[in-house]
Amino acid sequence: MDLLIVGSGFFGLTIAERAAAAGRHVTVIDRRHHIGGNAYSEDEPETGIEVHRYGAHLFHTSNPTVWEYVNRFTAFTSYVHRVYTNHAGVVYPLPINLGTINQFFTAAYSPDEARALIHEQAGEFDPKKATNLEERAIGLIGRPLYEAFIRDYTAKQWQTDPTELPAEVISRLPVRYTYDNRYFNDTWEGLPVDGYTAWLERMADHPRIDVKLNVDFFDETQPLHKAATVGQVPVVYTGPVDRYFDYAEGALSWRTLDFEEEVLHVGDFQGTSVMNYADAGIPYTRIHEFKHFHPERADRYPSDKTVIMREYSRFATRDDEPYYPVNTPEDRAGLLAYRELSKGEKDVYFGGRLGTYQYLDMHMAIGSALSMWNNHLA
Ligand code: FAD
Ligand code: UDP
């Protein structure tokens, strides 16, 4: 073995694929029973509808290197992601665009009129100087739209005071003064034609890649555990960085999600793939309806059944799957302390969403793995 990779998500598999292609022998361990990390999907058995096990995953990127790389393993459908939100029993398009604004204010504003209105309502904060999510959001869209579409959804999603959250969380959502309601701004987007798991398996399918599932790096009863490998072989670690150091600098805060899946005996439940619920009175943040991700599979999917998944968000305990780094000021201080500790670990490379405590989309995880391979490991 030339390299041990802890975690078979997109970060770990990209390193594994590159290393194997360069002639190295790689072992990938994962504590789960399947490869692919949070991007893993499987067909729901009663309906055959592909369900993203850890929440809906939409691939999008503007990075030509990443786009060329991922196309080696899968083709992509022409799916374009659009999200709607239910506020006070009325459905509006997201991200906030001219359609949302005109529907909300029951108006027919032109782009310039809408801009002038929002400018007037957003005056209390300058989004460029905003230091937290609330200031950035109000600075971008004004207080009325913030209170309708952002405040309570964000409270459900993060259970953290929006003045404590980093402004970047909301910068992911564009605001548009056109009727364009594409969720992402990227050059390329789509879903893997044969599903996520087929894509992930193709990345791992190489005679020099050995994947071992149900193996936990911290389980000292298995031979590839931390004390037995660090210092003996280069290690790429994509698990939670605080766990690696046994929480020596305190636990970083994460959010986890609970998913409530249901097969419904109706052909179409909500007419679209993702419906957000903006209001505090509804305990879940959104409902995914998976058949809408693949309209091209209409002849394969049942016309009288559908699979929906309600998503609930809460703070993660150490026993939960960590999904979203919360990134409060205390977390950022903790992360710096862990980065210092990491420098003392001989030949251990921390990567991926958990290993760097960063909100990385798939294309970012793949892009940073390609950089780590090219710049440090190759
Ligand atoms: P992960 O996929 O988390 O993989 C880490 C792996 O390490 C896991 O398989 C885990 O089991 C394993 N591991 C951890 N600890 C150990 C241990 N001690 N021993 C052995 N193995 C261990 N990205 C997008 O581009 N579009 C989206 O729409 C999107 N939606 C998302 C929705 C949700 C709910 C979440 C959580 C993420 C979403 N992402 C999305 C991000 C996407 O999941 C990540 O970018 C991608 O999975 C990153 O891969 P990774 O390898 O860094 O981490
Ligand atoms: N957000 C919101 N209302 C919405 C959708 C998003 O307030 O209807 C905020 C919320 O704080 C969320 C952030 O915007 O965490 C980013 O949203 P995105 O849909 O990108 O989050 P993800 O899909 O990663 O959960």
Provide a descriptive summary of the structure in words:
- GO terms for molecular function: flavin adenine dinucleotide binding; UDP-galactopyranose mutase activity.
- Keywords: FAD, Flavoprotein, Isomerase.
- It holds the Pfam family GLF.
- This protein is α/β, with parallel strands linked by helices and 378 residues long.
- Among the domains are: 3-41 and 193-247 and 325-377, NAD(P)-binding Rossmann-like Domain (Rossmann fold, 3-Layer(aba) Sandwich); 83-171, no CATH class.
- The chain contains 13 helices and 16 strands.
- The protein has helices at 10-21, 64-70, 98-104, 111-121, 133-141, 143-158, 168-171, 196-204, 226-229, 241-244, 329-343, 352-356, 362-377; strands at residues 3-6, 26-29, 41-43, 50-52, 59-61, 83-87, 90-93, 188-190, 209-212, 235-237, 254-264, 274-277, 286-289, 306-315, 324-325, 348-350.
- Strand 3 and strand 4 (50-52) form a beta hairpin.
- Helix 1 (10-21) runs parallel beside helix 13 (362-377).
- The radius of gyration is 22 Å and the shape is globular.
- Bound molecules: flavin-adenine dinucleotide and uridine-5'-diphosphate.
- Flavin-adenine dinucleotide (FAD) binds at residues 6-12, 29-32, 37-39, 54-59, 216-218, 238-239, 257, 323, 352-354, 360-363, 365.
User: Which class of the domain at 3-41 and 193-247 and 325-377 in CATH terms?
Assistant: Alpha Beta
The CATH homologous superfamily name of the domain at 3-41 and 193-247 and 325-377 equals NAD(P)-binding Rossmann-like Domain
Question: What's the CATH architecture name of the domain at 3-41 and 193-247 and 325-377?
Answer: 3-Layer(aba) Sandwich
Report the span from N to C terminus.
15 Å
The DSSP helix count reads 13
Return the CATH topology of the domain at 3-41 and 193-247 and 325-377: Rossmann fold
Taken in chain order, the helices and strands follow as EHEEEEHEEHHHHHEHEHEHEEEEEHEHH
Largest sheet: 7 strands, mixed
In which order are the strands of the major sheet placed? 7-6-12-13-14-11-15
The count of DSSP E runs of length 2 or more, i.e. the number of strands, is 16
Helix content: 25-40%
Which class do the helix and strand fractions yield?
A: alpha/beta
C-alpha Rg, in Å?
22 Å
User: What are the low-pLDDT stretches, counting only 5+ consecutive residues below 50?
Assistant: none
Relative strand content: 15-25%
List of distinct ligands in this structure: flavin-adenine dinucleotide, uridine-5'-diphosphate
Tertiary shape: globular
EC number: 5.4.99.9
GO molecular function: flavin adenine dinucleotide binding; UDP-galactopyranose mutase activity
Pfam families: GLF, NAD_binding_8
InterPro entries: UDP-GALP_mutase (IPR004379), UDP-GalPyranose_mutase_C (IPR015899)
